[in-house]
Amino acid sequence: MKKMITLGLAAVLAFTIAACSSSTQTSGTNGGASNHPADHKQANGNANANPTGTAAAWSPAKSIEVVVPAGAGGGWDTTARMAAKVLEEQNIIGQSMGAVNKAGGGGAVAWAGVHAKKGDNHTLFVTSPPIIFVHLNGQSQFSFRDFTPIANLITDYGSFVARADAKWNNLNELFDDMKKDPAKITVVGASAPGSMDHMQFIKVAKAAGVDIRKIKYVSIQDGGALPALLNGSVDIYSTGIAESVEQVRAGKVKVLGITSEKRLSGDGISEFKTAKEQGIDATFENWRGFFGPPGMDPNALAYYEAKFKELNTNSAWVEIRQKYGWNELFLTGEEYKAYLEKEEAALKQLLDELGLRKK
């Protein structure tokens, strides 16, 4: 009899230990937690569904601030506001998401502010190649490695824009004049010298045979670059395709060329000729994604990865991508980090050729 009681107690104890072990493995801590974005999405179809899923271990308790490291109207601003709009309106994230512009230093001011919020799970920021450029040219102490990469959403391309009444109708006509006297033509961009708007133009101009050391580039931030083009203060605006579309439709500017591998689809966008089809063997890809501060809770990271994965296939977001001529480039986790490292290596080489990288 005593032996039977002992066996019974042992069975109960074994069951209890197994149950506790199962709970520990599915709580979103290190043991047994899934790091695959698809698993995160499944766990987050509903914020409270599947309580054993990794991402369900955390959800935002208050509104989320989305930092835009530049002024209003640029590619970062458009991406941040459109993504926040869909995430909120489609109830993908059940908290308000406010975009806050923090311009300065080509992004460096905003990055310093976000970095100071170590472990803050309610702050995100949108970024792209400048987070690599600006660090490499010595204008920011922070690289992408100093933050938490969450998800890349899109890839955009450079667009070289002139006023509608400009004498140039394509890149070859522009570069023929620049070969004669590069400094006579002023190129404007919203990013700092040695950063994206500058370097995408430099890369294409170099492939066209222009002496890139003599190119006159000026940086005008806080939304002033386009007005400078329209009022005749500068000749060419190096920007993103999304920043060109509405002005082209309004008849105020014309696009001389874009940096994609092939023509893009979309209303009006399909008319923009690539540099490659104009005989200039150069492309430039402007990836764009979301990061968080350093030291984010792994469960918060899993939550955001899942929500951005859901955003990526949402019909409202697909429509926005098509409107602005953005291509899908969804990356998370180790795949995203590997992509960023590869981009950094390529950009280092370009800056070294121009003597713009701080050693």
UniProtKB/TrEMBL annotation:
- What this protein is called in its record is Transporter
Q: Residues of the signal sequence?
A: 1-26
Q: What is the lineage of its organism?
A: Bacteria, Bacillati, Bacillota, Bacilli, Bacillales
Which residue windows does the record flag with biased composition (Low complexity)?
Answer: 25-34, 43-55
Residues of the region (Disordered) are 25-55
- Keyword set includes Signal: yes
- Entry similarity comment: Belongs to the UPF0065 (bug) family.
Q: Keywords, A to Z?
A: Signal
- SUPFAM superfamilies named in the record: Periplasmic binding protein-like II (SSF53850)
Q: Which CDD domains match?
A: PBP2_Bug_TTT
